[in-house]
Amino acid sequence: GAVVSQHPSRVICKSGTSVKIECRSLDFQATTMFWYRQFPKQSLMLMATSNEGSKATYEQGVEKDKFLINHASLTLSTLTVTSAHPEDSSFYICSAGPAGIGSGANVLTFGAGSRLTVL
Amino acid sequence: GQQLNQSPQSMFIQEGEDVSMNCTSSSIFNTWLWYKQDPGEGPVLLIALYKAGELTSNGRLTAQFGITRKDSFLNISASIPSDVGIYFCAGRPNTGNQFYFGTGTSLTVIP
What we know:
Radius of gyration of chain B: 13 Å
Order of helices and strands of chain A: EEEEEEEEEEE
Oligomer: heterodimer
Strand content of chain B: over 45%
Distance between the termini of chain B: 38 Å
Strand content of chain A: over 45%
Shape of chain A: globular
Distance between the termini of chain A: 37 Å
Radius of gyration of chain A: 14 Å
Mean pLDDT of chain B: 93
Number of strands of chain B: 11
Structural class of chain B: mainly beta
Number of helices of chain B: 0
Low-confidence stretches of chain A: 100-105
């Protein structure tokens, strides 16, 4: 089955530093990947849609300059939390989107998540 | 973005009991997905549904795509302790590539 690898699984950083999280589709190509943020005991909050070869589409209220997304290849999307602050501490999860409507691959496969703690 | 209505929000049940949860949307969907998330992990796909009225099973789990295309149901039969976790529904409308998520159902199984 489809596998999405997310790295790192945990990261602790000092306030003001930047942190990069990688999301890779291991056995399929993903033209679209999604980035979510999840607070304890809450649902997934979509932050942005990462599109290969073009700019990411951000959800309302998500700062583009704060959460930089790059989708340079069909198997890799990265999320960089710039100048991280304690309020950015959260669980970040990526997923790889379906190959296309009617393709038969109409599911979302999630990475294992990345726990960010900003001191 | 749109969030689906998922209920119940939480459940505390005895081992061996059956569980039912559902999701509803205000618009028509062409895909319904059900996921389970363990603490500190990413959601794992349980069942995918693509046709109105479709009923699909995965072991003790059964999910249905509502005939109105605006809802979906997940049932777990004879619950066991390892069923503990948060269950999410996800749906995709007819237009666009976007999936929307339910608010989650937290399941606790008491041995």
